[in-house]
Amino acid sequence: MFGFGRRRCPGMHLIEQSLWIVMASMVATLDISKARDAAGCEVEPEVQFDNPVFRTPRPFRCDIRPRSEQALRLVRQAADAAA
After folding, report:
1. Any idea where the domains of the chain sit in the sequence?
2. Are the CB atoms for 64 and 31 separated by under 8 Å?
3. CA dihedral over 30, 35, 39, 44, signed as positive or negative
């Protein structure tokens, strides 16, 4: 994805570290769980991949909620700072 040898992307380490920070922040501030149907039962996601080379999964439904009001404020502050 980032190339190799002399043609390697010079920003590779920056992107990987930035992605790590985003993922760690999401795990720390959000509860991520399976989606629920109208009856309140969990819906098992159907895992399907579109691209056999990069193994890109198809979109699926999930439930993402802030862990607390403080976590919600942190997410909003980060979004406002990025804008």
Report:
1. 11-82
2. yes
3. negative
